[in-house]
Amino acid sequence: MTTATPSLPQARRFTLPRLGGIWSAIRRHPSGAIGLFGVTFFLLMAFVGPLIIPEPKVNVSARSQPPSAAFILGTDNQGKDIASQIVHGARPVITVALLTGILTTIVAITLGALAAFLGGLFDRVVNSAANFVLTIPYLVAMTVLASFIRLNSPITQALILTLWSWPVLMRTVRAQVLSLREREYVEAAVALNLGTPHIIFREILPNMASYIAISMILAMTSAIYAQIALITLGLVPLSDLNWGKMIFSARTTGAIYIADTVWFILAPVLAIALFQWSLVTLARSIEDVFNPRLRSGA
Amino acid sequence: MTNSTPILALEGVHKHFKAGRNTIRVLQDVSLSVTQGEIVCLVGESGCGKTTTGKIIAGLSSPTMGKVFFEGQDVRHLSGEAFNAYRRAVQIVHQDPYASLNPTQTLYRMLSFPLFRHRMVRTQSEARARVLELLQLVDLTPPEDFIDKFPHQLSGGQRQRVSIARALTVNPRLIVADEPVSMVDVSIRVSLLNTLSDLQRRLNLTFVFITHDLAVARYFAWEGRIAVMYLGRIVELGSAPEVTAQPQHPYTRALITSLPEPDPQLTRNKQRIGLRSEDIPSLLRIPNGCAFHPRCPWHVPTVCDVALPELARTESSSLAACHVTAQTAQHAAALAAQAQESN
After folding, report:
1. Residue A221 is part of which domain span?
2. What is the per-residue pLDDT across A21-62, written as a single tens digit (0 to 9) for each?
3. CA–CA min distance B15, chain A (Å)
4. Inter-residue contact B25 to B14 (CB < 8 Å)
C-alpha cells in the first residue's frame, strides 16, 4: 500500500482564481462583457473624465445650439456644452449610487443574517421595522425630511436612501439564510463547534455571494432612480452639477419645447438609462463569477 | 468491549415536533447506551425516528423529555470546555454527500477550518500535512490529487469519504453515521463500509450506524448490536448475529424475511411473514397499545391493542417489545423450571 508521505507544503497556496473566473464568465456571456464595458466606461467618465474635459462655461454667443462638431451634443440655454455637463454631472450621481448600494448591502446582510440566526425578539423587531419602513411612501417622507435635513453631502444622501432601501434586501437575505442554515454542511459545522461567525461568514454567505453582488447592483440602480427623482423634484439643493439637475433645468427652462435643444434633456436621460442598463446586464452574468463549478475551470 | 460507564446513553428520550395544532411524536421513550469501541446499528423504515435519534446523540437536537448522558454526565448541564469536549467527541456523517459538503470550499479549506479552530495545528504547512494524512486515512489516494479540489469535482463515494475525513478532524470518539451508504452507488458501498470498519478498528471508534437496510446493518455491525426501531420506539435490541438469526419481534422477523438471499432457492423457500397491512400508520395517529398491532400477524385482540409492551428478555438473549414473545419466553421459562423440578 502507499505509505503516508505528506508531501512538503508547496508554494502553491490556495488562491481564488477570481480574475480568471471573471474572464471566463465574460467569454461565456458576451452580454455580461458589454455590461462590464458600459459600467467601466461610466466609472471612468465620472472619475477620470473631469480631469481631461474642461468644465462647461457660460457662453452667451452659443446659446441653445444643436449638435455640431464643436459641441457634440449641442449647448443649453446658457451656451454651456451639454457633453461636458454629462461628464461633470456623472460623479455625484454615481458616488451616491455606489455608497447607497454598499450601505444597503451591509445593513441588509447584517440585519437579515442576524434575524435569521438569532430569531426571537431580535427577529421580530427587525421585521416590524422593515414592515414599518415599507409602508411609508418614500417620496412623501423625503419631501418632509428634505425640509429639515440638509441633503447636500453624498454621505447624507446615501444614508437617507439606505434608510428606505434596506428592508427588501434584508427580507430576502433573511429568507436565504433561513434556508441555508438547514443545510447539512452547516449542521456539520455546528457539530464541529466552529462558532456562529464562522458559520455565517464562511459557510452561509459565500453561498449567497452572487446573490449579494446582484442585489448590490440592483440597489444601486434603484438608488439612482430615487436620487434623480429627488433632484428633479427639486428636493435636493441644486448646488452641484449632476444629471438630475440637468433634467430639472431642461424642464424648467423649457428646453424640451425647442427642437435644437432636445439633447439638453435627452442626454442625461440617455446617460442614466445606459448606465442602468449596463449595471443590470453586468448583474445578470455575475452569477458565473461566483460559481465554483465554473470558476475552477478544471 | 469495555464495561465502564457508557460513552453515551439515552434515557427515556422523547422528541415531539409541533405541526400546527398537531404534535408529532417522533421518539417515545427511547433508551440506549453505547460503550466505547462498539458498533450499534439503528434499523427501521423511514419515519421511525432513526435520524432524530442520531441527531439527539450528536447534540444537534435536544430531546423534549428524557436525558442524554455523555460519559455519565447529563449533556444539558455541560458548559464551557466540558460541552466543547462533548461536541468534539461526537461527530456526524450525513446521508446525502451532495448536501453535506459546502460547494464553495476546497477540501483543504473544509478540513483545515476545524483544525485551526481547535488549535490542533498552528501553521498552514502543519494544516496541510494533517489534511493530507486525513485524506489518506479515508482512502482518497493520492491525497495530493484531492486536497485542492472542490466537492463538485468528486463522485458521490469520494464526497462521502471527505465527509468522514471532516468528522475525523477533531479526533472524535463516537461517530453517528446517518445512512452513509444509502446514496452512493451500490458498486462502491462495500468498499466504503470496509473503510468505515477499518477506521473503527484502527482508531477504536464507536459507531452509531443508522440504516434502513438490514443487509447493510448485518454486514457492518456483525460484532456489534442492532436496535430495530418502529414508529419512534426501539422494538428489538440485541447482538447482530442473534437479531438476524433469531429475530424475536414480528416486525424484525418481517424485515429479515424480506431480505433477498444470494441463493434464489433459499429466497423462494423462505417463510414469509404475512403482514396484515402494508401501510405504516401516520405518526400523527400512532395506534394504541403496541404500535405494530394493526400490521402484526400475531395480533392478540384486547392485549396488543390495549397495553404497551415493554422491552423484555426473550428466549434468545436479545430484548424485544412484544406481548407474544414475552409470553412464549415466560412459558418456556416455566417449562424449563418444571423440567428442573421433575429432575
Report:
1. 95-243+266-291
2. 566 666 666 777 788 888 888 888 888 877 777 777 777 676
3. 19
4. yes
CB–CB contact B60 A191 (8 Å): yes
Work out the burial of residue A174: count CB atoms within 10 Å of its CB; fewer than 13 is exposed, 13-18 middle, 19 or more buried: buried
Interface of chain A against chain B, CB under 8 Å? 2, 4, 6-9, 12-14, 183-185, 187-188, 190-195, 198, 202-203, 206-207, 209, 292-293, 296, 298
Place of cell 444622501: A157
Q: How far apart are CA B157 and CA B180, in angstroms?
A: 10
Contact A185 B99 (CB under 8 A): yes
Cβ distance of A207 and B102 shorter than 8 Å:
yes
> Looking up cell 400490521, which residue turns up?
B295
pLDDT tens per residue, range B268-279: 776 667 777 878
Find where cell 452667451 sits: A60
Residue B210, judged by CB atoms within 10 A of its CB (0-12, 13-18, 19+), counts as: buried
**Is residue B317 classed exposed, middle or buried when 0-12, 13-18 and 19+ CB atoms within 10 A define those classes?**
exposed
Nearest to A187 among B60, B88, B106 (CB): B60
Interface touch A292/B109, C-beta < 8 Å: no
pTM above 0.80, yes or no: no
Q: Which domains does chain B have, with CATH numbers?
A: 8-245 (3.40.50.300), 250-343 (no CATH)
Tell me if ipTM is over 0.90: no
Please give the C-alpha separations between residue B91 and each of A40, A190, A194, B29, B69, in angstroms, as whole numbers.
49, 10, 13, 24, 16
CATH (domain of A225): 1.10.3720
Nearest CA in chain A to B80: A193
Average pLDDT over residues A93-100: 87
Out of A13, A193, A293, the one facing B84 most closely (by C-beta) is A193
Name the residue with higher pLDDT: A232 or B139: B139
Cα–Cα distance for residue pair A35/A16, rounded to 1 Å: 23
User: Domain for residue A204, yes or no?
Assistant: yes
